[in-house]
From TrEMBL, chain A:
Belongs to the bacterial ribosomal protein bL19 family. Keywords: Mitochondrion, Ribonucleoprotein, Ribosomal protein, Transit peptide. GO terms for biological process: translation. This is Large ribosomal subunit protein bL19m. It is found in: Mitochondrion. One of its GO terms (cellular component) is mitochondrial large ribosomal subunit. The keyword Ribosomal protein applies. It comes from Baryphthengus martii (Rufous motmot). GO terms for molecular function: structural constituent of ribosome. The keyword Translocase does not apply.
TrEMBL record, chain B:
This is Large ribosomal subunit protein uL3m. The gene is Mrpl3. One of its GO terms (cellular component) is mitochondrial large ribosomal subunit. Pfam families: Ribosomal_L3. InterPro entries: Ribosomal_uL3, Ribosomal_uL3_bac/org-type, Ribosomal_uL3_CS, Transl_B-barrel_sf. GO terms for biological process: translation. It comes from Baryphthengus martii (Rufous motmot).
Length: 248, 231
C-alpha cells in the first residue's frame, strides 16, 4: 500500500537516510600530545643544541617506550638498582610535577608507604629505568600537585600492587575534579595565595584570610607582553619532526 | 654528568711563525676562529687574512707547535681533530661582572649585619699591619671582575659530532653561552700519555677516511642500547 501524501498523489518510495558512521579512531588521531620536555626554553642558546638533544631523545624513545602521561597519573617505575636483592626496584606513585627540558627531564612520584610520605624524582631518559607503566589515567585541575604534601595522607596513598586500570585507546583523558582537604596550618607553602593558582584544594579558611591572601595578587602579570612565550608554532614544527623520526 | 658543547666554527690556519722569527722555544701557528665582517678592522690586520686567502675571523690565537706538526696556512680545521677519550684544556674570557666589591670578587666575609655596626657590612676591614706602614702590591681590593682569560684543565672529551663539528666536553667551561673558546690538548702531566693517538698533524677532510657522524667514548651509554641492568 502506498502512502498518500497531503497532495493526494501516491508518494514515491523514499529510501531511509544513510547511517552516519562516526569513526572513533579517526577522532582520536586528531588529539596530539607532545611531551613538554621537547619544547625548548626561551633563551639565547643555539637552536642546534636543542636539535641534537631532540635527536638523542628520539633515539632513546625508539628503544624504550615512554608512555604519554600528565600530572595526576599513577605510574609504576622499575629501575635497575645494584644494591637491591633482585637488582631492580619498583615504585608506584602519583605524578606530582614534571620538570626540566631536554634529556634532563624529570618527574616526581609521590606515595605514602607505612605512614611515611615518599617522593622520588626520576629522570625520563635515565638509562637505568627499565619500565614505566601507567596504572591509572586521570588529569587533575592543576599542573603542580605539590600541595599534596600538606594534604591529609589519604589523598597520597596508593596501593603498591594496584592493577592497571583498562582504558580505551582513543578516549579523552578524564579530569578528576577532586577538591583535596588539607591538614591544619602551617603549610610548607601558602597555597591560598593567588601566585600558586591552585584550584584543587577545598579551603576551609575563614573569609577574612582568603581576602587577605588576595592582597598578594598581581593582576597585571597576565597582560605583561615581555613574559609571553607563544609555543604553538614551535610545537607544531617539533611535533612534525618528532613524528617523522619515530616512524622510521 | 654535566657537559659543555664547544662548536668548531670555520677555523682556519692563518700563519706560521718559525722559532727564529718569534724568538720562542717552539714554533707557533696562528689560528683564526669564527667568521666576521671585514669592515671593522685596520688594514694591517686584514693583511694576514688576505695572505692566507681566508675570510676575516673574529678571534686569532696562537698555538705552540713542534716542527713535525706544521700545517700550511689556509687549511681548515675540524672537530675531528680531537678524538673521544682525549683530555683537553679550554680557555675563554669569563663572564664580565663589572666593578664588584670585595665580598663578591675575593670572597671576604664582611661584617655582621647588626650588633652596633655603623655603616660597615661589606667592607674589607683592615688592609695592612702597623709595622709594614704600606699596602703591599696585589692587595685584594674591589675592582673590575670577570672578562679575563681563564682555563679549565683536564676535561675529558666524551663525544664528537663530525657533521656539525661539536665536541662534547666533561664539566663546565668559562664564559657565557655562545662565546669564543680556545681548545687545546691538555698539558697536565697525568694525561701526557693519553693523547698519543690523535689524527696527526690534523684531520684533513679530503674524503680519504669517511668518519661516522657521531664518535662516542667506550664508557658512554649509547641511546641505541637497551636499558642498563646490573647482574
Amino acid at each position: 500500500s502506498y502512502r498518500i501524501c497531503s497532495d493526494g498523489k501516491p508518494a514515491k518510495f523514499q529510501p531511509p537516510p544513510k547511517p552516519v558512521i562516526i569513526d572513533k579512531q579517526k577522532q582520536g588521531e586528531e588529539r596530539r600530545f607532545l611531551s613538554p620536555e621537547f619544547i625548548p626554553p626561551r633563551g639565547r642558546t643555539d637552536p642546534l643544541k636543542f636539535y641534537i638533544e631532540r635527536k638523542d631523545m628520539i633515539q632513546r624513545r625508539k628503544v624504550f617506550n615512554i608512555p604519554e602521561f600528565y600530572v595526576g597519573h599513577i605510574l609504576a617505575v622499575t629501575t635497575a638498582d645494584p644494591h637491591a636483592s633482585e637488582k631492580s626496584s619498583r615504585f608506584v606513585g602519583i605524578c606530582i610535577q614534571r620538570g626540566g627540558k631536554g634529556l634532563g627531564a624529570t618527574f616526581i612520584l609521590r606515595n605514602v608507604i607505612e605512614d611515611q610520605g615518599v617522593e622520588i624524582c626520576y629522570e625520563l631518559y635515565n638509562p637505568r629505568i627499565q619500565a614505566i607503566e601507567v596504572l591509572k589515567l586521570e588529569k587533575r585541575l592543576d599542573d603542580n600537585l605539590m600541595y599534596l604534601r600538606d594534604a591529609l595522607p589519604e589523598y597520597s596513598t596508593f596501593d603498591v600492587n594496584m592493577k592497571p586500570v583498562s582504558r580505551l585507546d582513543h578516549e579523552e583523558i578524564p579530569v578528576n575534579k577532586l577538591q583535596v582537604r588539607m591538614k591544619p596550618k602551617p603549610w610548607s607553602k601558602r597555597w591560598e595565595r593567588p601566585k600558586y593558582n591552585v584550584k584543587g584544594i577545598k579551603f576551609e579558611l575563614p573569609e577574612e584570610k582568603m581576602k587577605e591572601a588576595q592582597k598578594w595578587s598581581q593582576p597585571w602579570l597576565e597582560f605583561d607582553m615581555l613574559r609571553e612565550y607563544d609555543t604553538s608554532k614551535i610545537e607544531e614544527k617539533i611535533w612534525k619532526e618528532v613524528n617523522e623520526e619515530l616512524k622510521k | 654528568h654535566c657537559f659543555s658543547f664547544p662548536k668548531v666554527e670555520d677555523c682556519h690556519v692563518l700563519r706560521y711563525v718559525s722559532k727564529e722569527e718569534s724568538g720562542a722555544k717552539t714554533s707557533k701557528l696562528l689560528v683564526g676562529g669564527k667568521n666576521g665582517s671585514p669592515f671593522h678592522k685596520s688594514e694591517s690586520a686584514m693583511e694576514i687574512f688576505r695572505e692566507a686567502g681566508v675570510p676575516r675571523k673574529q678571534k686569532v690565537t696562537t698555538f705552540n707547535v713542534t716542527d713535525d706538526a706544521i700545517i700550511k696556512p689556509g687549511t681548515p680545521l675540524y672537530a675531528a681533530h680531537f678524538r673521544p677519550g682525549q683530555f683537553v684544556d679550554v680557555t675563554a674570557k669569563t663572564i664580565g661582572k663589572g666593578f664588584q666589591g670585595v665580598m663578591k670578587r675575593w670572597g671576604f666575609k664582611g661584617q655582621p649585619a647588626s650588633h652596633g655596626q655603623t655603616k660597615t657590612h661589606r667592607r674589607p676591614g683592615a688592609i695592612s699591619t702597623n709595622k709594614a706602614s704600606k699596602v703591599y702590591r696585589g692587595k685584594k681590593m674591589p675592582g673590575k671582575m670577570g672578562n679575563i682569560y681563564r682555563t679549565s684543565f683536564g676535561l675529558k672529551v666524551w663525544r664528537i659530532n663530525t657533521k656539525h663539528d661539536i665536541i662534547y666536553v666533561n664539566g663546565s667551561v668559562p664564559g657565557h653561552t655562545n662565546c669564543l673558546v680556545k681548545v687545546r690538548d691538555s698539558k697536565l702531566p697525568t694525561y701526557k700519555e693519553c693523547n698519543k693517538n690523535p689524527p696527526f698533524p690534523t684531520f684533513f677532510a679530503d674524503g680519504d677516511e669517511e668518519l661516522p657522524e657521531d664518535l662516542y667514548d667506550e664508557e658512554l651509554f649509547q641511546f641505541t642500547d637497551p636499558s642498563l641492568t646490573y647482574t
